[in-house]
Amino acid sequence: MFAPVYLDHNATTPLHAAVREAMLPWLGERYGNASSRHEYGRAARKAIDEARAQVAAAVNAHPTEVIFTSGGSEANNLFIKGAAAVQKPGLVAVSAVEHPCVREPARQLVKSGWRFAEIAVDIEGRIDIPAFARLMADKPKLVSVMLANNETGVLQDIPALAAQVRAGGGWMHCDAVQALGKIPLDFRGLGVHGLSLSAHKIQGPLGAGALIVDKRVELAPLIAGGGQERNLRSGTENVMAIVGFGKACELAAAGIEERARRHGALRERLETGLAQMGAQIFSAAAPRLPNTSFFALAGIDGETLVGKLDRAGFAVASGSACSSANPEPSHTLMAMGVEAGLARAAIRVSLGAGSSEQDIDGFLKTLGENLASLRTLAAVAV
Questions:
Q1: Which residue blocks in the chain are alpha helix, DSSP H?
Q2: 1: exposed, middle or buried (C-beta count within 10 Å: 0-12, 13-18, 19+)?
Q3: Taking all residues of the chain, what is their mean pLDDT, rounded to a whole number?
Q4: DSSP character at residue 325
C-alpha cells in the first residue's frame, strides 16, 4: 500500500506497539465478562480496574472518577446531556470554537427548554474575556470550553474560566481530547466538574474514551441497563479497548516534556519555512499545542492542495468540514473572524510519534512545488 508521510496526528494516531501487546490476550485466551463471578470474570474486572487506575494517574484523578466510554464524543454527550437531565432548564453555553460533539448536544437541549449561547473568541481563538464576563452575569448552569482546539491547537485558561463558573453556581465541562499526552493534565488543577478523554489520540485503540467526573456531581446516564460504570454507562465493558486505553495513558503520561520539546522544535522548523512562502499561520501569538500548525496560503484552495499533497506522499488535513456537496470553511476560523476565502485555504499539520526533520523538509519542498503549479492554474483561470 502507498503510505504517505503521516502528518495528521490530531485526527488519529497509529497504535503503539506496547498497547497492541497489552490488548492481544483479550483477543484470544482472555475473554471473560467483567460482571461474571468466576475466574474469567475476575480477570476481566482486574484488567479494567488496572486500566482505570492508569487513566486516572495520567490526569491526577481518583480511579473512581473515571467513567469509561466509547470515545470523546460519547464522553462529551454524557456530561452535557447527563447534567442537563438532573437540573431545571437554564442557560447552557459553549465556546464558539468547540468540536461538533460538544456544540450539537448543547444545541439539542433547546428542545428541552434550555437556552443556548456561544462564547465568542478573539482573533487568536482565545475566549473573549469581556464576552465571558457578560455570560457569567446570566448565571449559566452548564458551560463547556475545550482545553486545546483540534484545528489551531490553541490552549484556553480553563482554571480561570472554571473558577468563575463555579463561583456563579454553574457546572464546568472541558473537552481535553486533544490535550491528553501533549501537555500535562491535572483534573484537580483545572477545577472542572467533567473532563473528556479519548484513546485513539494518544496511540491507543479506536472505540475507547473516558469521562472524568467529580464525585460530587450527579449525572443521568445516556444508556440504561446493567449498571456498569457507576450506573452511568451500562453495557458489557470492551475490555480489550479499555486495557489498551490504560496502557496508552501510561505511555502518554511518561515523557511529555521531551515530546513537547521535540514537537515544538519541529513546528518551529515547519513554520519558518511556511513564513518564507508567505503563509498566514493562525493563532501564532496564542499559547498552542506544540505539535499543531494551522496555516493558509492565500488564493489556494485547501481541499485541492490536500489532495495534491496526499498524492505526492504527505497526509495532512484541510480546514474545511466537507459535506458530500459543499465544502464549508472552518467553523473555528470563522469564529475567529477569518475571511471565508482564506479559511477555505487552511491546512493543518499535526505532528506525532515518528515525525522527523526529514518529514518537515520533505513536506516544505513538496508544498513549494505544488504551490507553484496551483498558482499558475489560478492565474490562468483568472
A1: 17-23, 39-58, 72-85, 100-108, 129-137, 158-167, 187-190, 228-231, 239-253, 256-276, 302-312, 331-335, 340-344, 357-381
A2: exposed
A3: 94
A4: S
Angle between helices 100-108 and 72-85 (to 10 degrees): 20
Helix axes 302-312, 357-381, angle to 10 degrees: 130
First to last CA, the chain: 38
322 is catalytic: yes
Tell which phi-psi region holds residue 360, choosing left (phi > 0), alpha (psi between -120 and 50) or beta.
alpha
What are the pLDDT digits (tens) for 319-373? 755 444 457 899 999 999 999 999 999 999 999 999 999 999 999 999 999 887 7
> Which of 101, 174, 249, 322 is flagged as catalytic?
322
pLDDT score for 323? 42
Domains annotated for the chain, with CATH where assigned, are 17-253 (3.40.640.10), 255-381 (3.90.1150.10)
CB 319 within 8 A of CB 293: no
Task: Report residue 173 CA to chain centroid gap.
Answer: 14
pTM summary value: 0.95
* C-alpha cell, 90: 437554564
Phi, psi of 281 (to 5 degrees): -100, 120
Quote the CA–CA distance of 249 and 312 in Å, as a whole number. Answer: 34
The pairing of beta strand 292-296 with beta strand 314-315: unpaired
SS3 156: coil
